[in-house]
Specification:
elongated, transmembrane transporter activity
Length: 108
């Protein structure tokens, strides 16, 4: 959490809503607090955070369960493939996050 963001609304929202809704609400509050400083970069940054929170919330909830349903746990070969699926899924998410953070820092 950055030093300029509100603490109390974020705590309230994080107790009652999912992670993506917390990020969405926090970004909206952050925009409203800095309405006098709305420049193009701020608007793009905040709208990007909101889109990311919606996409991340849907991906984290749906991808593991939908992918795991494709494997039959009774079949030994598919049971082994289930472990590979989860390893590749987590590796892809972490690699994408590291690349995104590194690339954004390099661009800025």
């Amino acid at each position: 959490m950055n030093s300029g963001e509100p603490v109390t609304p974020e705590l309230f929202v994080s107790w009652h809503l999912a992670s993506y809704a917390t990020r969405l609400d926090r970004s909206t509050i952050h925009i409203m607090m800095h309405s006098t400083l709305l420049r193009r970069n701020v608007v793009l940054s905040e709208s990007g955070q909101q889109r990311r929170s919606i996409g991340t919330g849907g991906l984290k909830a749906a991808a593991p369960s939908l992918g795991a349903d494709q494997f039959d746990e009774e079949d030994p070969e598919e049971a082994a493939s289930l472990f590979v699926y989860f390893n590749v899924l987590i590796f892809s998410i972490v690699t994408g996050a590291i690349f995104g953070v590194t690339f954004l820092v390099w661009v800025m």
